[in-house]
Amino acid sequence: MTVRDFLQVVWAGKYYVLATTLLVVVGAWLYLDRQDTVYQSTAVVQINSAQSVIGADTSQAASVDVDPDFVTSEEVAAAAAEELGYAGNPAVLALGVTPEYDTDAQTMSVIADAGSPQGAQAIAGAFARSYVDHLPTVRDQQIAELDERRDALRKQLATVQKQLKGDEDDPLAAAERDTIITQYQAVSALRSTMQSIVEPGTLLSAANPAVALGLSRASVLAMAVLLGLVAGVGAAFARRGLDFHVRSAEEAAAVGGVNVLAELYGVKAAAKKAGSSGRLPITSRAASPFTESIRELRTATRVSLGHEPHRVVVVTSADPAAPRSFIAANLAASWALSGLRTVAFSADMRQAELDSWLPAPEGWSGVGTELRPTTVPNLELQPVPDVMMDPADFLATEVVRKMVGRLRERADMLVIDAPPVLAAADATILGGYADGVVVLATAGRTDRYVLGEAIQRLHINDVPIAGLALSGVRGDRRTQYATRYGDGERGAVVGDVKDGRDAADPAGQPAKGSDGAPGSGTAGTAGTADTAVTGGSGAPRGLRRAARPASTR
């Protein structure tokens, strides 16, 4: 996957990325809002020691017992609670205190956690001072234990002396006597050293200003944004992986195995506007991404069918969601406006919509099921036949075959609006009468499997496929530039159009277009179409009062 593919996937799932990021950030914010900030302060107590001389050449440092449990003992906690004025259980207060002894530096760190910086600093200082005050008591207890040890050694020595009086040469008794004497001397030396320690501990550093534990709120929110973006990108790729719809022209061509004739831009907006105004976009002077893509489809289809006269093209779709009838109406109008005699055949007997997109001119009276004119010059419409037979059975009859033959001979281009391929056999039957079939798919809505099945069904029945047309594609800068190019020149030319003549062509002959058909040039198309259709009023006669179709298919 290239960087561009990666960015396209992320952009396609941008709402997933935004929603996931927002969800994670809101969750982090709520978590932080419900969490109480814990502050921590530390006070340090220096443990004092003295050298204890054991022998002539032996000495060791002696200090009070530095068991960390003394810091949170009942006596120290009670004294600290009294200093702080804490009326609750001192043991509860001690739960927020953690002692740590540094053997090398001989320091005891008193670490206190609390819900406020002042509280943490006060607790750490109170416990440190109470611990310093408690150390002399610990020293005295140790001296008392040494006294008990000396008394025990005296008793052992007295017993051994009695043994030696009875037998002065007893080697075991003599050795035991020497050992007891050595131990007694060491205990006595240690006792003297402990007595020499006037201050067993001193407050080395008072409690420092408390700091908040953990990450700051800003850091947590920044991490939440990063995590949300990563999760959102993952969701975008998961969405893409689980999405079975056609997304691009390249994908549609790969799935169907046929060429994509054109990408149709702004179809939904164009259909909505046409439904409310009663005017096909292709008949308008103003170019738009949609009208330019319809002309591109017209050119590509004509090239695919060949430039011989009396060609028949069927417009169908892979699924019912595609705006098939709207595209067929604009495609037929585009050929008509380019100077070709065109007939549109409304062959969807199940949901006839082409009749509504191509109404009869104002004041026209005739039989509703017969070939009739439309408000577009050079364009006639064969309405949907009114029969009691099943549509597929009727379309397969010789009557319809001959009807298509007559319409073919009457027109340079015959455009047939057919139902979706997989919805019924109608499109397959009508495709057998045509020179090519244009299959319409919708980006983001047409399932890849459905598109493949539709193309395969047409192939199985030997139906000639002209290619695919992909609607639902968003325009880009290229399409916007194409519709704005030459706006100034186009406006000057169109302003001089009178009676269907182009000011650049006094003879009134349509200009040659890009597809080789007469009148398909920009100025010629606009002038011929708009003047003939609107009669110079800027709005089509009759079409403005046409009923809006039930849908845009």
The radius of gyration computed from the alpha-carbon positions, rounded to a whole number of angstroms, is 49 Å
In order across it, which strands form the biggest sheet? 8-15-14-9-13-10-12-11
The second-level CATH architecture of the largest domain is 3-Layer(aba) Sandwich
- Number of helical segments? 19
Distance between the termini: 35 Å
Domain module tally: 3
What's the CATH superfamily of the largest domain, by name? P-loop containing nucleotide triphosphate hydrolases
Main sheet makeup: 8 strands, mixed
Question: In percent terms, what proportion of residues is strand?
Answer: 15-25%
Residue-averaged pLDDT: 82
Helix content: 40-55%
**Strands, count:** 15
Question: What global shape is seen?
Answer: rod-shaped
Class of the largest domain, according to the CATH hierarchy? Alpha Beta
Low-confidence stretches: 488-553
Structural class: alpha/beta
Might you state the CATH topology name of the largest domain?
Rossmann fold
Organism: Isoptericola luteus
Keywords: ATP-binding, Coiled coil, Membrane, Nucleotide-binding, Transmembrane, Transmembrane helix
Protein name: Lipopolysaccharide biosynthesis protein
